[in-house]
Amino acid sequence: MTNDLASDQGSLDRALELHGLVPLIDGHNDLPWRYRRMVNRAISAMDISEPQPQLHTDIPRLRQGGVGGQFWSVFVPTSLDSSQHVPATMEQIDLVYNMIRRYPETFQLALDADQVEAAFRQGKIASLIGVEGGHSIGNSLATLRMFYRLGARYMTLTHSQNVPWADSCTDEPVSYGLSEFGREVVREMNRLGMLVDLSHVSPDTMRDALDTVEAPVVFSHSSARAVADHPRNVPDDVLERVAENGGVVMVSFVPSFVSQEVNGYYQSRDAERERLASIAGMSDEQSGIELQKWDGSNPAPDATLSQVADHIDHLREVAGVEHIGIGSDFDGIGSVPIGLEDVSTYPALTAELISREYSDEEILNILGRNVLRVMRQVEDSARRIQLERGPSEALIEDLDGTGGTPSGVKR
Q1: Of 100, 239, 266, 323, which is most buried by a Cβ count within 10 Å?
Q2: Which CATH class is domain 2-255+305-400?
Q3: Domain boundaries, the chain
Q4: Annotated catalytic, 329?
């Protein structure tokens, strides 16, 4: 036992050394959303320079975890009135700027790969902005361009619901992938130099995007569907295409994406909720009480750090180690895997990869080099494309009629 403990500590020490060599870049953290929900966007009302145990993220734990770069999600829910999607996203971008301004000794805005590395050399956490869901642009390429000017460096094409021009993996198909306007969105993102993020989208949308892009793609917070059969995860045929494309899949820590057992549990719980809702004469209050009883008799299983590493193993086998990154989804999830409880725990995952005999070079690629490579390739492609064409003047009504492929029509 003593030798095992010494070995574990040795792996953790080595993990921290590796975190000092390249920026660990996490693809997705929802701290800005937590600020919006908990303190109405007031950065001064929740001081993350001090421990904040109600969060997964604060500055002491970011430092403990050896984080060198973070894509901050500027998510707003599709449930907002559609007229509010664009201004609410702008408010979230403003929140990220305010956070960087309040903690300049910790955070530094980064707009490209060189700036990520420059921030890291200065001991800062490179702060990048990611738009989570194409609903945020309001079907407007002009809005997309303005978000890029404000610092957004990726956009997830959908969130949990379809947009008029792209299908989500958790909604009924309408466009059966990307509409013609959706393809134009992807082309314009490539022209700008904005990463095309395929987390949340349907497999058909993934494939259409890969058919359309002129640069590598990312999945900012997704895992391997062959390991956990959740619709938010990436099928093997798409993983193979990501390798051909040069992109990166950033492994998520969401328990139902990580563990097939947890995924099955929530499928059973959803089925029970639907059964209760279908009972004639049962009120919402009664069905809620009955669901609580079901929860009491059916405790949720746990996901584990080891299972997250299993996804990394599978991605390495199918796509190759050059196409793996980390995308936790911290502060966007209600539960976490055992061993990956908050942003302080990344070294434990790195130590697990060391124990699985990943080489230092492989681990450095996973921590950040792969994402930096993709960023640079996207930036280089944008410079080339901008010599070939100017900003797209396409409108959704011109390409898709009233907006999107009609329901049930296969393109």
Answers
A1: 323
A2: alpha beta
A3: 2-255+305-400, 260-301
A4: yes
Q: Is 171 a catalytic residue?
A: no
| Residue 85 among the catalytic residues | no
The three-state DSSP-derived secondary structure of 346-401 is HHHHHHHHHHCCCCHHHHHHHHHHHHHHHHHHHHHHHHHHHHHCCCCCCCHHHHHC
Active site (annotated) includes residue 159: yes
Query: How far apart (Å, rounded) are the C-alpha atoms in residues 298 and 152?
Result: 42
Q: What local confidence, expressed as pLDDT, does residue 99 receive? A: 98
Which residue is associated with the tokens 């059916």? Answer: 298
pLDDT single digits (tens) 123-145: 999 999 999 999 999 999 999 99
A 10 A CB-CB count for 104 gives 9
Report residue 350 as tokens: 């790195």
Of these residues, 58, 132, 197, 362, which one is catalytic? 132
pTM, 2 dp: 0.94
| Residue 47 appears among annotated catalytic residues | no
Model pLDDT for residues 246-270, shown as the tens digit of each residue: 999 999 999 999 999 999 988 888 8
- 30 catalytic residue (yes or no): yes
> Which one of the listed residues 188, 197, 329, 342 is annotated catalytic?
329
